[in-house]
Design brief:
- This protein has 221 residues and is mainly alpha-helical.
- Among the domains are: 83 residues, Arc Repressor Mutant, subunit A, CATH 1.10.10; 62 residues.
- A hairpin with a 2-residue loop joins strand 2 and strand 3.
- Helix 2 crosses helix 4.
- The radius of gyration is 36 Å and the shape is extended.
């Protein structure tokens, strides 16, 4: 099974990125091959396409199965097992995110909970414990939000993610308006009259000078 340059580039890249995602190069390349394959592949075909040993392919497939990133199937008249990646890319994203939460985030939350129950022995311990509490609160907030999004169907989740940039823009506009209103109430730019300044001017305008009345002349008798 010969890979085209296009597929080979994709496979090699996933192998390099795999180590950064917590999986080895072999597992990353196997997954990339299954993701781009037009049909399910058996272990022999995978080994031939990637130049791996049969044993390394078997180990890599078991790793992908533990991540729920491959599907196992059989074909009539063939005793070999065939493997494929899920068709829905959103399902793949959900699976990766859920597995990383289970493997990496949950143990961290458990540790942070435990250290909060310990009695601090010094001021340094109390300071460190307070910092850990802040970290625990943030991670818990994020994981709670993540759990809520996992319950959404794919269409709703996609709309929510696309809405993210719009929400950011709306919040930015809100902050600017709030800032502008605050500045306007504190200080009115020179040369601009408002109803408030006109009303204030009327009430504070000095009284006009009045000419004293001349005394009336007495009539001659």
């Amino acid at each position: 099974m010969q890979l085209s340059p296009l597929i080979q580039r994709f496979v090699l890249h996933f192998g390099e990125m795999g180590s950064r995602w917590g999986i080895n190069r072999t597992v990353g390349q196997i997954y990339a091959l299954l993701f781009t394959a037009a049909r399910p592949l058996n272990a022999d075909e995978i080994a031939e396409a990637l130049g791996f040993s049969r044993s390394n392919v078997s180990i890599g497939l078991k790793e992908l199965e533990s991540w729920n990133l491959v599907r196992l199937s059989h074909q009539p008249g063939d005793r070999r097992e065939y493997f494929s990646a899920p068709d829905d890319v959103w399902a793949i994203f959900r699976t990766l995110a859920e597995e990383r939460r289970r493997r990496e985030i949950d143990p961290t939350l458990s540790m942070l909970r435990e250290v909060q129950l310990e009695t601090p022995l010094s001021d340094d311990d109390r300071h460190a414990q307070a910092r850990m509490k802040e970290m625990y609160g943030l991670i818990l907030l994020v994981t709670t939000w993540f759990g809520d999004t996992q319950k959404l169907d794919t269409a709703t989740l996609e709309k929510l993610m696309r809405l993210g940039s719009r929400v950011t823009k709306l919040l930015d506009v809100k902050d600017r308006l709030t800032s502008a209103i605050g500045m306007g109430s504190a200080k009115t730019p020179a040369g601009i009259k408002t109803k408030a300044t006109e009303s204030t001017a009327k009430t504070t305008r000095p009284a006009s000078k009045t000419t004293p009345a001349k005394p009336a002349r007495s009539r001659k008798e």
